[in-house]
Amino acid sequence: MGRSAPKKTLQPSLDFKVKKKKLGRKPLPNPNITVTTFKSKALNMPGQNLVEEKDDLVNHRNLTLKDLLTKLNHYNDQVKKDAVTGIRDLISKHPTVLFVHLGAIMNKLVEVINDLDKDVRHCVHNLLGTILPMLDEISISPFIPLFSVYINSGMTHLKTSVRLDSLRLLDIFIDHYPNLISRSCHQMIPNYIDLLKRVSGSATIATISTSTSSSATVPTGSVPISQQKKSSSSSSVALTSKASSLHTRVMILKSLFKLIKVLLNEPDLSFSLLLNRIHKQRENTQIIDGKMAIDCSLTYQAYNDRKVFTDLFSKFLVRNNEQQLPQQQLNSDGTVKSLFPTILETQEEVKQFSSTLLPILIDLWLELGPSNPGISFQVLEDLELVVSIIQLLVHCLKEKFSTTDFYEQLRKDYIKFFSVHFPFYVGSPSNPDSKEWIISCSINSLMTQTASHFLGYSPSINNVNETINGWYQPFLEFIEDALNGKLIDEKVEGTKGQIIKSHISNLLWIVKIILPILSSTQSESILNAFISFDEKCHPHSTPKKACVFFIKELIDIQSNPLLSNVKSFKNIIEWGLASLPKLLWKLGNSDNDTSLMIINILLSVGRDKSKIKHYDSIQNALVPFFFTISKPTPQHPNGKQIYGPFLSLPLNIQFLALNTLYYFSSLNKIMIRSLIAICRSNKSSPEIVSIILDLIHNLYLVGTLSLSHYIAFCIATTLSVTSKDNSNDIINNEESIKEQESIIKKLCWNISSLRLSNSIDSILEPMSEPFIIELKKISTNFQDNNNENSGDSLNYILSLILSCFTENNNEIREKEFKSLSNELITTVTNSIFIYIFQSIKFINSTSTKIYDLNIILKTIQLDNSNQMLINILNLISSKLNVGSNQVEKNNNNQYSILSLIELFKSKELYENFQLSNVKSVINSIVKKVEKSVSTQLSTEKQLLDKLLSEVKLLFNE
Prior knowledge:
Elements: H1 65-71, H2 77-93, H3 96-100, H4 102-109, H5 118-131, H6 137-140, H7 144-155, H8 160-176, H9 178-182, H10 188-214, H11 225-263, H12 272-284, E1 287-288, E2 291-292, E3 318-319, E4 322-323, H13 347-368, H14 377-401, H15 405-417, H16 435-453, H17 464-471, H18 473-483, H19 498-505, H20 508-514, H21 520-536, H22 542-556, H23 567-587, H24 592-607, H25 612-616, H26 619-626, E5 627-629, E6 641-643, H27 651-659, H28 669-680, H29 686-701, H30 707-726, H31 734-754, H32 760-784, H33 789-802, H34 810-818, H35 822-839, H36 854-861, H37 867-877, H38 886-904, H39 910-913, H40 916-932, H41 938-954
Antiparallel strand pairs: 1-2, 3-4, 5-6
Helix pairs in contact: 1-2, 2-5, 5-8, 7-8, 8-11, 10-11, 11-14, 13-14, 14-15, 14-16, 16-18, 16-19, 17-18, 18-21, 19-22, 21-23, 22-23, 22-24, 23-24, 23-26, 24-27, 26-28, 27-29, 28-30, 29-31, 30-31, 30-32, 30-33, 31-33, 32-33, 32-35, 33-35, 33-36, 35-37, 37-40, 38-41, 40-41
């Protein structure tokens, strides 16, 4: 059989395959031909370009505020979270967005503050924490009621996390706007109580179930292993639940404490009470442009009327684990009345609130375990919170209920549950800055203050042994130990323990209460402990302020008959007054508030006439505060001048400090010397110098200052002004000249008023010698150094001399002038001549205008014999043809002629010139001028012609 032919497996080539043409169909177009008949068209796709520039302000993701606010309504939690974060970024980049769209932003944010997602809520809290500091009360006030409604809603939410986050949001508002949020928190206090009841209730159930399961005494071996595991797991769950409940209650209490501190006006017993009163007094007496300032602060009322019912918290009163409603809360048909909100406005409300809250606080205190020696720092803080709330409530209840059975029951409960754990120490005094020691000392301080509130305002003598030596004895011992420094180790006291000292200083108000009922031995011991504590406090520390305030309180209660005969109390008053000026000097200008407190305390003591002996004893101690001179040393043989902190303090404190001097029975020499130094200082303002001048004058008028001391002060003040002028290194500007003139005018007015009761001899005689010395210095300085300021100094001294004479009575003035010493008259005459002659050198030689001749002419007119005028004219003529060379002679001739012309032109001396003795002198001087002046010089010839014309006009020739 032959082989079959092999099969063809090769596929035909597909290249160049030609399709068969079919009948009745058009041939296909050639694929190799380029089609050129296509058309193009633009497509518009709006909103698809993500990098498009937008006209509005955008955040880093190019989203506007409108876009972000729209996304807050999105169903997706992540989108809402990103939207809140985007708004925060947008406001950070463009703060103006917040102020322009505040309403839209707030109305949208309030809708998500109670969002079910935790991250969204926290982002809203962060955003509000950024927004609120940027707004003032006026801007945010319309939105506070709206946020309050949503916060109240969150506090009653079914979800626990939402309830707790609403408290965090409330804390943010309290931190920034406590006054505004307090007007809109009507329902919050009951909600807090409800939250605490819920949490404590769940914890109680867990505890009961745990104790029930563990109360059986079945041996472990007889119980199956599976049941043992189940029992251990259930107990661990119960313990975890209890710890979580405890933490939640503490968190709620922290928020509640922050709110009730705003709602309850806690009486202030610290030094800030005095400081606030001082600042308020200063604000109320503020003067602007001569008018009293008006308080224009606005008061914003709540949007809804507040209805107060004292029995609001009655539904929370628990008695034998059963809730009871009082009869007044039931309608006639037996239904419960609707409860209206309140905000602790009355004492009864505070009482109801305290009655509801205190059992919860006691339970929490016992649960935290204060007797546990291994207690943690977190638990310590929680214990401090409990004690702080109790101390606030007891303090607020004391004013109205201190004598009631309710308050007495509070005292018994406090002794039963809290005093048994006192004192409470965790840590060591060798490490006073450790957190545990600080918190434990704070707890002890708060517990002592709370116990002291139960003593009442004025404890009776009958129950002293029952109180001070009874249940209060541990607290009294703690106060004395704390003041004696037993809470801080002596080895580290210099550098550490400042916070502990602050807690100790909070106990000082208690000492004031218990002093009247302590024995003399106890009083002396505790007052000596206070002195020891005060000396250990740094001058700039807060405890030092508290000590200053306590000294003020001790001074105030000095009139107490129970303490008037206590020697230790008298000693501490003297010590306290003596320590205040020293502290004032130590503070310098670094703590104006404390300086203000000390000065006000000194003023209050000075105004009390019964304490004048104590007040006079501190005058020497107060001198270094103004100015003092150190002891002589080889480098400073006359002692070094040291200015105190007075000049570096604000003006209002300087004014008050000067007022303290008014109440001394007399000012000693060193105090007057310090005031003179203040007036001489370049740092003294014109207002301060003016007040010192008025003060010294008033002290003389009331008899506190002698005439000799007063004249010495006036002389020294005048010489201090003239010494500034005589200094070549000082160039007086227009402002400083005005200040000096105002000082001299006030001095002249004061001295002129002295003439009403004193002779001119008693005033001018002490002035003569220092004025003669000063006038000679002025003349020498004016003549040799060409110091223009010396002319002002001459006018100042002459003004002071003129103020001693009687005005508008020539006969009396003539007698008074004759009483002057010849040396003073001669010195004044020479000084006037030098002033007139030398002042010509400072102006153009062709001008005859001299600075000021008014005071000089009045001084010349004092001499009715005209001898002073004649001597001045002769001294001027004596300068003719005087000089070492011809140029100097010519200059002196010109200066002499100009000086004469200036005198002849004065209208004030016209009548004096008409007298025969003066006229003859003038004629002889004119002849001397004609002989001395060279007519070859055109300048001198012109001046001579002018002089002759003035003489003819003078004598009408």
